[in-house]
Amino acid sequence: MAAALACGTLLVTAAACSNGDDGAAGGSDVAAAPVAGRTTAPAPLPLTNARARMALITAADLEDDWTQVKTAGNWHDRLLVGKVDVARFVTARTQAAACQQLLDGLYENDMLGKPSGGSALTGFQQDEARLFYQVAAYDKADLDKSLAWLKSLPTECDQFNAVGAQNATRSVQVVAASLPKVGDARQGITVTVKGSSGGSPVTLTLDVAVVRVGDDAITVVNGGTDGVDHDSTDDAVSHGVTRLKDVLAGRTPAPQPSLFD
């Protein structure tokens, strides 16, 4: 009798546990479990001089036989020195000022103006070609203005003349250039300057690339009198953005670029 009652009790308990569909039971379990909160990505670190140096690309980020040098800050090409011929422009004052800013910025290695925070630069040489590379923090509003100015140059300064020393005339052409789709905003142009050096005709061709990452930016100026290797510009941009993002996230950039970039 006692055994029968015990068995009946077990059957009632089992029936009570299984009473209702599985969804109801499962719903109860989910309701009782704590809900995981959403996590937000940490704010990027401010770009100091030390972090900017960490974010600089190396020769390993560029294909071919580029050699890293320490003299990039002193690079100045006299073919870029000249006063824009205002008479050539329809809206002379506006267009000439934009084109003069381009020549001066290229000569002084100062395309985006003075950084507002940390900065670092480096350079690479390959035969007659040079590649100037800078990482720096800027005021975001000023940086956006600089990108808009660069975007306008193929229209405002598509072709113009500049007069250098001893009234030597240089012809300048500016065209838009595509860049890898990296960073928050980007702008590229190719500048061709034709003049003379030592009495012989010479042509200087330069890629100019600027990519914004938050309030920071990388600047690449690549080329020379033997032409420009656009692939090296793209490598510098794509690998440079990866390195900058790593540094801003508190990570140490890899010594070699990834094969899956």
Description:
The chain is built from six helices and nine strands, in the order αααββαββαβββββα. Helix 3 crosses helix 6 (230-248). By secondary structure, it is α+β, with helices and mostly antiparallel strands.
Gap from first CA to last CA: 77 Å
Proportion in β-strands: 25-35%
What oligomeric state is this? single chain
What is the helix content? 25-40%
What are the low-pLDDT stretches, counting only 5+ consecutive residues below 50?
Answer: 1-35
Strand order of the largest sheet: 1-3-4-9-8-7-6-5-2
Structural class by SSE content: alpha+beta
Q: Which sequence of SSEs, written as H and E, runs from N to C?
A: HHHEEHEEHEEEEEH
Describe the global form. globular
Number of discrete helical segments: 6
* Average pLDDT level: 86
Annotation, overall tally of beta strands? 9
In short:
The chain is of the alpha+beta class.
Please give a handful of descriptors for the protein shown.
34% helix, alpha+beta, 6 helices, 261 residues, disordered N terminus, single chain, 9-stranded antiparallel beta sheet
Topology, element by element:
Elements: H1 2-18, H2 22-32, H3 49-55, E1 67-69, E2 83-84, H4 92-108, E3 119-126, E4 129-137, H5 140-156, E5 159-163, E6 169-176, E7 185-197, E8 200-213, E9 216-224, H6 230-248
Helix pairs in contact: 3-6
